[in-house]
Design brief:
Layout lengths: L1 H33 L9 H21 L10 H24 L2 H9 L1 H13 L5 H18 L7 H28 L3 H28 L10 H27 L2 H22 L6 H26 L13 H16 L2 E3 L4 E3 L1
Antiparallel strand pairs: 1-2
Helix pairs in contact: 1-9, 1-10, 2-8, 2-9, 3-7, 3-8, 4-6, 5-7, 5-10, 6-10, 6-11, 7-9, 8-9, 10-11
Length: about 350
């Protein structure tokens, strides 16, 4: 039992490390690919379509060679999930375009409480006081080190709301679909990636033209740009797989909270590699955020080792059902035995 627990902990750490490394790596690669000082590839939605196309190809090869098995998931669930996931991607892109960086960061931070509320509404999930407080500390820390100017307009606010809701639903759905159909993370990704790839490759160039005013067909694909697109797609496979692994192993809330470690890593690497400004305010915010993540990890472990039955938690039998069962047993023992044939009772 101890060996299994240790093996599970190592797997959890491995999945999380893969997600952090691949996510930070893809951000650095995309920064070089899309920045004006780099290759100026300003087609973010189409690039995401490329990501899912390569992921779908890897999934098809894996299934064909027998490295992974394919389990049945209803098509309508896959389509619904793909629509939500694509809304998340396009909503984030439009939110970043229409809003200030400060409001965009705030909208990303608001996903944590939104995920908490949705899990409470959809799955009746309860959170301890320690978990709630650690989430608040993380939000404050990341807010201090990332949020600058805050400007908002009606269109930007609407896009941000769509992005927040769809992203939260997507992350909750990953875990629920895996549990509902007993499907692995890579198997689920292999089924949804082709749908997302097809839709994004069709709609992506249109959305990108609206965002940037440029057609992807007019872009000059140099060897350097092609190399970074290939690197970005390769990292995206690891990023997508690790995201499904993490949410399947942990929860959408844990993924959001611990995911802000990537924000800290991105800020630090941006300062080291791209001469980005790193102020005292940024450093203090990072320290607060890291402290919040440590507290959150501790609170989750405490919650696992000391589970409490809550009025809303549905176990195999609730306290009320146990009480009624006991009352029923007592009633059968203490009540007079009825004579069915005579319709009377025997004392």
């Amino acid at each position: 039992m101890e060996a299994e627990k240790k093996s599970s902990s190592v797997s959890d750490i491995g999945a999380w490390a893969m997600n952090v490394i691949s996510s930070v790596g893809i951000i650095m690669a995309n920064k070089q690919l899309m920045s004006a000082n780099g290759y100026a590839f300003g087609f973010a939605t189409t690039l995401t379509g490329f990501h899912f196309a390569v992921t779908a190809l890897v999934g098809m090869i894996s299934n064909a060679t027998g490295l992974s098995a394919s389990k049945h998931v209803p098509l309508w669930e896959l389509l619904w999930f793909s629509i939500v996931a694509n809304l998340s991607i396009t909503g984030m892109n439009f939110s970043l375009m229409l809003n200030s960086v400060g409001f965009y960061q705030i909208s990303k931070l608001s996903m944590i409480p939104v995920v908490c509320v949705l899990e409470w509404l959809l799955h009746s999930k309860q959170y301890t006081f320690q978990v709630k407080m650690s989430v608040v500390v993380v939000v404050i820390g990341v807010g201090v080190c990332t949020v600058t100017d805050v400007k908002v307009n009606a269109k930007g606010f609407l896009c941000a709301c769509v992005a927040i809701l769809s992203t939260s639903l997507q992350q909750i759905s990953i875990g629920s679909l895996q549990k509902k159909y007993s499907v692995g993370s890579f198997e689920l990704l292999s089924k949804t990636a082709p749908i997302q790839a097809c839709s994004l490759l069709v709609l992506g160039p249109i959305i990108d033209y609206y965002l940037s005013g440029k057609l992807i067909l007019s872009y000059n694909f140099t060897s350097g740009a092609f190399l970074f697109i290939l690197l970005s797609c390769s990292l995206a496979v690891f990023c997508n797989v690790s995201q499904y692994l993490c949410i399947g192993r942990f929860s959408a809330v844990s993924f959001q909270v611990l995911g802000h470690m990537k924000t800290v890593c991105v800020l630090t690497l941006g300062w080291l590699l791209f001469d980005s400004e790193l102020t005292f305010k940024n450093i203090m915010g990072m320290l607060v955020a890291i402290a919040g993540m440590v507290i959150y990890s501790w609170a989750v472990e405490v919650e696992k080792t000391n589970p409490k039955i809550t009025p809303h938690a549905k176990n195999s039998m609730t306290e009320e059902e146990i009480r009624l069962l006991k009352d029923g047993i007592e009633f059968e023992v203490t009540s007079p035995v009825k004579d069915v044939e005579l319709g009377g009772s025997k004392q």
